[in-house]
Amino acid sequence: MTTWPEWYPADCPPKLAVMAKGSFFRLVDGERVTEVDFLSNRELVDQGIKTRVFWTEDKEYLAVACSVYSAQQDAEQTRKSFGALRKKRVARGAVDGGGRIMNTPDKNGSSHHSWWRPAGDEVWKSFVVLS
Structure pTM? Predict the structure, then answer.
C-alpha cells in the first residue's frame, strides 16, 4: 500500500491519476539533480524557498504535485518560454511505479504531467541532467 505525505489534501492524488511509469523530464536548478529539485510548489512555499503562490484552494491538489514532461521538447519549450525558468536545466529519469501521475497539459497541449510522489520517494536519484 502506498503511503502519501500527510500534508496532501483530501482526495489526493486524484482518482484519474494512474501509476507513474515511464521516462520523464523535469526542469532542475543545477548540473546535478538534488532532492530540492523535486519539491512541489506547495513545499517550496512552505519552506520559504518560493514566495509566490500559483494555485487556488480548489487547485491545491496540483500544487502538491511535481511537474514533469513525457517529451523533452516540451520541457525545453517551457524553459525557454518563462524568464524565471531560463536558467534551469532539463533532466531525464525513469519512474517505475513511484506514485501516481496524470496528464495535465497546458493550453498548447504539451506533454505536461502532474506527478504525486509517495512519502519517502527517492526516484529523483534516477534523474540525470541532459542540458
Answer: 0.89
